[in-house]
Amino acid sequence: MKKILITGFEPFGKHDNNPSKIILESDYIPKIANIEVKKIVLSNNFNEIQSKLIEVLNNYEPDIIVSLGLDSKIFTLKLEKIALNLSYDHVNKGNLVHINKNGKDAFINNLNLTKLVEHLNDHDIPATVSYHAGIYSCNYIYYLIQEWSKIKNTKSIFVHLPYTHEMASESIIKKDIIKPSLSQKIMEKGIKEIIELLTY
């Protein structure tokens, strides 16, 4: 049986919610044979992210890590290729920091993300490959999970999610701001398809 860790984030900045948090705190569990799933929602504080994540990774020792986060400007699932050893700590004094002062400048995911995207699109799930995960919490956690995965020889991926339809509706009603969105059901289906492919 393969152990799967799925991570998400609390809301941050001007966003009242986070699709990754919504999905992980629902009863959503990908229905795939011979897998065990653990779900955790992390804060956006770099110190808390690192300590909690590393503790979970070392105790649970997942075979596959799927990390989720919000990108409010996208219309698709966005599969990230590169994690930089640099992040903007917007919670603690807003400084650019090295995630690991002695670590590699970047990790390039060796999974065939193009193939994953093609599979998702073939299953009516809009998805794209991205080569820049930003410099905030998403990139921070992506670097950490890539670093851990290289040491442990496991698979990991970071997927940016757009707003859910409900989040987008609230944004229009409360803030008069239009945001791109996908249905939660499609996002959950996409996560399932990604995990299923990575288990092979």
What does this structure look like?
With 200 residues, the chain is an alpha/beta fold. The protein has a single domain, classed as Aminopeptidase (3-Layer(aba) Sandwich), CATH 3.40.630.20. It has helices at residues 19-24, 46-60, 113-122, 137-152, 165-175, 184-198, and strands spanning 2-9, 35-42, 64-70, 77-80, 82-84, 87-89, 95-97, 106-108, 127-130, 155-161, 163-164, 181-182.
Describe this protein with a few key phrases:
Aminopeptidase; single chain; six-stranded mixed sheet; two-stranded antiparallel ribbon; 36% helix; 200 residues; alpha/beta; 12 strands
Helicity range of the residues? 25-40%
Radius of gyration: 16 Å
**What can be said about the biggest beta sheet?**
6 strands, mixed
CATH architecture: 3-Layer(aba) Sandwich
Number of domains: 1
Q: Which superfamily, in CATH terms, is the homologous superfamily?
A: Peptidase C15, pyroglutamyl peptidase I-like
Q: State the secondary-structure class.
A: alpha/beta
Nearest-integer average pLDDT: 94
> What sequence of helices (H) and strands (E) makes up the elements?
EHEHEEEEEEHEHEEHEH
| CATH class division | Alpha Beta
Question: What's the CATH topology label?
Answer: Aminopeptidase
Task: Note the quaternary state here.
Answer: single chain
| Strand order of the biggest β-sheet | 2-1-3-10-4-9
Strand percentage? 25-35%
The beta-strand count equals: 12
